[in-house]
């Protein structure tokens, strides 16, 4: 398919100009045929989409265009707290990322982003004026509805982004409550990487004759093209030094995200790594203001290595990540795709490396089978083991309140919580968790 010039889509010139300023001149064929066209025709649809495929722009253009034209033709402004469009996302990071992209596409419209974890007051005030689009997390949207600060009676467009993640973040019930209160005459668009039964149920209840668009395809590799995959066998003992070596050899000074399993591991790995390379941690115990600082520092290149948990990294928009390292094997194939999808975005090249113990070799095989991908095994000779003890120090203090940088802190059970990696030969893929994508790999690790 050919790329399509934005200027030829019949979109309002104000938006075309804003896009040109962001150097966006064309839409990818996928954006255009799978998302933009049905959205422009007013169809309800659900798209199975990978992260990083430019879907925000594809669904955003028709909505922003319609509101812009309405605005221009209407004599009166909308009333306060009554958006024409509501976009819901499972995490505040994703909500902020979507709002940022939509705002830069239509700077002449009024967009408001609402999410939990910060004072409700300033967000409430931002709704006391005429607004066009609200982007938010379902919990905070419900808060605003209950206070009467947000009204849904004029909503014409409803977008649910990363719908399957609403289950993981505990927003499923809120989403249903909100959708029940929307006007019948509206257009609903949903995006989801997977189709659990809850999502299918939403389709049946809240969408009219929806088009199902598959941007993933079953035997299609579910990772963005352009991501090179390596696997690397490690032992508990050489794992840390090996990580350091991989960052040096494959990171080549670019942006690197390292995924660990727990907040404790994330903290300790970041501490050990930061002795040789600028590195910070991102996990749930780190206060919001510190997370924002860490993220902007990583985006701006003030440090090159970010060690994160899965939850903390969900929905983060970090352009140009060169390397993703799975320091801990992911809980399931879906998580592997999500983590690895942080690199190779929007057509760029990237590398993902899976570190695993001998016993976890089966996990690698399962991922290959589920995702339809192939790992190339890396053999890393002569790893410098002199830093091994840095990685076995445990300085993690839960919720220290100091941006997760704990002070002092004891040794704590012989490093990494008593050698909990690949306990006793892997212990098998507990409880039949082997089959298929959902349900993870059981509790065997």
Automatic annotation (TrEMBL):
GO molecular function, one term: hydrolase activity
A GO cellular component annotation in the UniProt record: nucleolus
SUPFAM superfamilies in the cross-refs: P-loop containing nucleoside triphosphate hydrolases (SSF52540)
Record flagged with keyword Hydrolase: yes
Presence of the UniProt keyword Cell membrane in the record: no
Domain (Helicase ATP-binding): residue spans on this chain: 36-213
UniProt similarity note: Belongs to the DEAD box helicase family. DDX21/DDX50 subfamily.
Name of protein: RNA helicase
Organism: Selaginella moellendorffii (Spikemoss)
